[in-house]
Amino acid sequence: MKQHQYEVTVKHIADAQGNPSAYSETLQFNAYNHDDLFKVLEHLRQANLLDDEKTKAFAVGLKLFGETLLENKDIALFKEFLPQFAQFMKTLKQTVKTQNSATETD
């Protein structure tokens, strides 16, 4: 399967109490996905389900997690969760479609 390739960088800025991060390094890795994350992000933005920062985090996290599930569907832990994830994705797609249709008609 052909996949889009991404470079993901995470930098810890502050701890839970708001103190500056004690970590000097960043977490950086390559990730692959069958979907174009920027198109997914645009659809989610148009649906206006979350604010922009949360939408970006949700889109990236969801697609990275989903790809891991699909690529490892034979592992018992993932195999058990896959039906619920598939249902969630179906519901999400329908919600986004409905929201985007409503926005277009406003």
Structural topology:
Layout: E1 4-10, E2 27-33, H1 37-47, H2 52-71, H3 76-105
Antiparallel strand pairs: 1-2
Helix pairs in contact: 1-2, 1-3
Structure description:
A two-stranded antiparallel sheet has the order 1-2. The radius of gyration is 16 Å and the shape is globular. α1 crosses α3 (76-105). The N and C termini lie far apart (39 Å). The chain is built from three helices and two strands. 58% of the residues lie in helices and 13% in strands. With 106 residues, it is an alpha+beta fold. The longest helix has 30 residues, at 76-105.
Helices, by number, come to 3
Largest sheet: 2 strands, antiparallel
Secondary-structure element series:
EEHHH
Helix/strand-derived category reads alpha+beta
Fraction of residues in H or I helices: 55-70%
* Multimerization status: single chain
Q: How many individual β-strands?
A: 2
Instruction: Give the CA-CA distance, first to last residue.
Output: 39 Å
Spatial sequence of strands, sheet with the most strands: 1-2
Q: Roughly what is the average pLDDT, rounded to an integer?
A: 95
- How big is the Rg? 16 Å
Query: What form results from the Cα inertia axes?
Result: globular
In what range is the share of β-strand residues? 5-15%
Unreliable sequence segments: none
Tell me briefly what this model is.
This protein has 106 residues and is α+β, with helices and mostly antiparallel strands.
